Each structure stands twice: as structure tokens, then as C-alpha cells.
Amino acid sequence: MSTEVKVPTLGESVTEATIGEWLKQPGEAVAADEPIASLETDKVAVEVPSPVAGVMGQQVVAVGDTVNVGAVIATIEAGDGKAAPAPAPAPKMEAKAESAAPAPAATGGESVDTVTTMSPAVRRLVLEHGLDPTKIKGSGKDGRLTKEDVLAAANAAPDASPAPSPEAAAPASASAPGRKEERVKMTRMRQTIAKRLKSAQDTAAMLTTFNDCDMSAVIETREKYRDIFEKKHGVRLGFMSFFTKAVALAVHDIPAVNARIDGDEIVYHDYLDVSVAVSAPNGLVVPVVRNAESLSFADIEKAIADLGKRAKDGTLTMDDMTGGTFTISNGGVFGGLMSTPIINPPQSAVLGLHRIEDRPVVRNGEIVIRPMMYLAMSYDHRLVDGREAVTFLKTIKEAIEDPTRLLIDL
User: Fold this and answer.
1) If I label 326, which of 32, 154, 240, 356 is the partner at 20 to 30 A Cα–Cα?
2) Is 181 among the domain residues?
3) Residue 133: which CATH number?
4) Per the residue annotation, which of 129, 233, 269, 381 is the catalytic one?
């Protein structure tokens, strides 16, 4: 007797997904509610649990296939998984397995299946970091490698010389030595990012205005209260809470920046849901801090820390990713000096933060050194006028240079 495994409901307006990785192989024991596959949606990765306990049966679809909500993707057979024969996988899966790179010979007791049982996502990471998969200890089922295993191995040996990929082990072509290409299908998330960002450029009358701000006061405040703040609230006091509070202050005067266009109407929000751009294994994601205008510094820092951790762990939900009214993107953590951020539709504006560096500036007729940051705000000129955009960014600059304004709503 077999039980069908179907694609679960993925969230509002999400009707399809892509098979990103099979977490269970045919013949393996499966517990009830144990994840057997990972689906890639437009925004997040979603694990598909087994509806019953038993043995993994046939994989009806292959990694990379697009499936709709409610579609059957696999079967679970009755049994406990002991010595269960492995059903033949779908034809497309066989073709992919045959085209996979051959596994290196086993050494020191390593299994020859180390490479052939790697998921496509894990195999990509191994190739990107130039690692030898036979030398990485897997923490997955039956010693399989996971993404975390590969990333941990890459971080543990940053200066190590990259190990040659399986393809590199083959004799180089005499006509083009060392020139290789690899074609990797874009993930659904990356495809969605590409479409949305291009759509923003094609649809919005996008313009970027710049300013810079002296970070001395904020840095001094953080240094003065950092230990007390962390001891009381259990979270570090970062720059993002200052900028989020500054944005909340500025939208009171310039509400169009926190609005959106819907057909021939303008939708104004009396709340501020801030999309915070954070890095995830599959790309940049923008989870949302809800009702930021009413949150304290500690609440904002806790929310951002939680979203950042769950982004790295791949546990963000669809609800975490939807409904933002304004975006803050901090490219400074990667060393970016200046950028022109792209609007996150249907929002009308995005604030770009950049790295802090000491620069000479004039204060009271004298040249002094100050920790400065460039600010960039891209906005939809169909909705936000230039005067409003400049005023909005100037308000943020003034609030950061004099944080007392955040307390007295000035």
C-alpha cells in the first residue's frame, strides 16, 4: 500500500514551485512529518513532510522540475525501511544521475557514493568552493553532505588551495587548456529576483538621490550604551534600529515615500512595515519588520536579528516575506561605498546604506576627520516628487547626526 505525497499549500498567490532537493531517497525509512523534499518558491524554500511513516517510494518528479500546488511528487510505501528495495526513480532523474560527474575513488574508508548522492545544490557549493567532497564529514542521513557541511568546510580552510573539480581531473583539452564553462539552472528565487527587479526598472520612473551623514553621534551613543543595552535586552545595539526609527520619523512628514500606486489610485499606509534586505544561501531576501513605527530600538534589533538568523537557516516563511511598505538595504556590511538601489515593487522607495569611513569634512570653518556614510534613496518619481525625496533623505540625515530628534519627534 502506498501513500501519495502532494505539494502543500505554499502561501497566498503562490501556485507553483521547483523541486530543489530530495532529502530522502527511494528505499530509505521515513518517519511521519519528516521532510522528504525541499521546494523552491519565488521567495523561500519550503520542506515537504511525509504524511505517514514508511519507506520512501518513487520520486515522481526530478530536481529542477516545476510542480503545482496539490501535485503528486512521490509515494510512501508501507514498511519500516529495513532492507527495502529501492524503486526505480523517474526517467528524468536517471538521466541526471548518468550525466553527473563521476565520484572520485574512495580513500581512507570514504564511500564511493559521496559525490553521486550529493544533491544538485550541495554539488554546486562543492564546485564553487573547490572542495574535495570525500574529505568533508557529512551530517545528513547515512553521512550525506548538507549545505551546512560544505559551508563549514569552506570557512574552516579559507586559505587552502581549491581542490580540482571532478571535471578538472580529466586531461585538459589541447586547444583550450583551463577554459571551462558550467551551466547551472537559475533557482526559482533567482529567476523571481531577476524578473521583479527588471520589472521595477521597466515600470517605475526610478530616480536616486544622495546625501551623506556624519555617524559620530550614533557611534558615540552605541559605544556608551552598548553593554548596558545588550545586558538588559539580550541583543546588540546596531545601526539598523537608528535608521529604521529615522525612516519612521521621516514618513510622518513625507507619507508618499511609504505609499504605493495601485492602478490609478495611491494607497497610503498609516503603518511602516520595513523590508530589510539580508543574505540567504539562495540569494538576497527581504523579510519584513512589522509596525516598525511603534517598535522600540530593542524590538527592532530583536526582529532584525531573528529574521537574519532564519534567513541563513532557510526557515523564513511566506508571511515573513510579504507586505513590506519600505525597504532598507545595507550594502555597507559588504564594503559598498555607494550604490543606486532598485525599488522593491510595489513599494515606492528604498534606502541604501553604505560603509562608514573616515573622511575630511569642514566643520566651523575647519577641516576635520569624521566617520561618514553615503546615503542613497531610489524612489518612484511617478509618486514621489524630487522635493519630497530630498526632504525625506535630509530628515534621515539630521536624525542620525542628532539622535535626540528620534526621542522628541523633531
Assistant:
1) 356
2) no
3) 4.10.320.10
4) 381
Same domain for 85 and 114: no
Pair 155, 257 in one domain = no
- Return per-residue pLDDT of the chain as tens, 410 residues: 788 888 887 766 677 788 888 888 888 888 888 888 888 776 677 788 888 888 888 888 888 888 888 888 888 888 764 544 544 544 444 434 343 444 443 333 344 344 445 665 677 677 777 777 777 877 776 677 777 777 888 777 655 444 444 444 455 445 557 888 888 877 777 777 788 888 888 888 999 999 999 999 999 999 999 999 999 999 999 999 999 999 999 999 999 999 999 999 999 999 999 999 887 766 678 899 999 999 999 999 999 999 988 888 878 887 888 889 999 999 888 888 999 999 988 999 999 999 999 999 999 999 999 999 999 999 999 999 999 999 999 999 999 999 988 876 65
Longest CA span, the chain: 85
Sheet containing 66-68: which strands, arranged edge to edge?
45-49, 35-40, 16-22, 66-68
Question: Do the domain assignments include residue 84?
Answer: yes
Query: Cβ neighbours of residue 343 under 8 Å, at least 6 residues apart?
Result: 200, 204, 206, 327, 349, 350, 378, 379, 380
What whole-number distance in Å separates Cα of residue 109 and Cα of residue 111?
6
Helix (H) or strand (E) holding 320: helix 318-321
In angstroms, the CA 242 to CA 218 distance is 8
- In a 13 Å sphere around the CA of 110, the CA atoms on its Cβ side amount to 21
Statement to judge: residues 269 and 349 lie in one domain: yes
Q: Which domain holds residue 116?
A: 100-168
Is the pTM higher than 0.85? The answer reads no
Residue 12 lies in a domain: yes
Task: Tell me: do 217 and 336 sit in the same domain.
Answer: yes
Q: What's the domain count of the chain?
A: 3
Answer yes or no: do 240 and 388 share one domain. yes
Residue 329 inside a domain? The answer is yes
Q: Check 33, 80, 319, 385 and give the catalytic one.
A: 385
167 burial (CB, 10 Å; 0-12 / 13-18 / 19+) is exposed
Residue 385 catalytic?
yes
Same domain, 94 and 112: no
